[in-house]
């Protein structure tokens, strides 16, 4: 088992915010019905395109979701095919239902581990399994819902003050703004690479040595749910420090200099040492872990009001601690 020298670096960036899921139709409560007779100009048009004349303020993708969800009638008959061709004189009727995302922004009593709280910011130790922002398949019980419950004034802020995210199965530290000036300052600090997050990770195999990985990251051309190292991707740099090896795995400390979606997961997989239990990027359950072995261990940023550099650390959580102990010994 090896233990290289510890070190710290100047402030570096937090990961970019991940893309939000598209909105989708919800239930009929609060819906708005609109109808029109198709004229000669719309004869032969696709149904989704013809509906833009009925509801021009909505995107075509949203109208397609309404069609597929059974919220559109043509001549009194429900039609679920966006490509269906309209005939002049057809009676079009559409139900504009509230989106799931618009309904998701509601207060809920979600347990949050608040590490630091003042009138400007929260620092939160996010637990494994907690989704940060509502999205497809997770429209309630998120960190955002918990923030709205804890402080109703957060409803006046973009995303309730959330300025960056962690994946559902990644644990660790996050900063959240509590006022518009604080949110603005934090967003600018992230863009300027003045916010540092340091991760602890367990990967398969023996990582050869500490190194700097510079490899562009973009959407995987084969699987849209993954990211990958691809030509033409966005520049991405991760400094990887080898802490220890043992039990068929390696313990790493990872410093981000850019913040791409899934950056650490992509870079270690690119080096053929995926995170333990990270099935999306080739990892397998090991050492008792069934979720990706990644923890946001250290967070440092300048306080948006005082300018003071604030630093917070949290050890790996209980579900990851036994595996970490087997490899790193501490």
Spans where pLDDT lies below 50 across 5 or more residues: 1-29
Structural class: alpha+beta
Spatial gap, N to C terminus: 12 Å
Order of helices and strands: EHHEEEHEEHEHEEEEEEHEEH
Q: Could you report the average pLDDT, rounded to the nearest whole number?
A: 88
Query: Rg, please?
Result: 24 Å
Q: Which strand-content bin applies to the residues? A: 25-35%
Number of strands: 15
Determine the number of helices (DSSP H or I, runs of at least 4 residues): 7
Which key terms come to mind for this protein?
330 residues, alpha+beta, nine-stranded mixed sheet, four-stranded antiparallel sheet, globular, disordered N terminus
Verbal overview:
- With 330 residues, the chain is α+β, with helices and mostly antiparallel strands.
- Helix content is 16%, strand content 26%.
- The protein has 7 helices and 15 strands.
- The protein has helices at 47-50, 60-68, 100-104, 143-150, 180-191, 263-270, 321-328; strands spanning 32-37, 72-74, 77-78, 91-96, 114-117, 121-126, 171-177, 196-204, 211-214, 217-219, 227-229, 237-246, 249-256, 294-302, 309-313.
- Strands 5, 6, 7, 8, 9, 12, 13, 14 and 15 form a 9-stranded mixed sheet that branches. Strands 1-4-2-3 form a 4-stranded antiparallel sheet.
- It is globular.
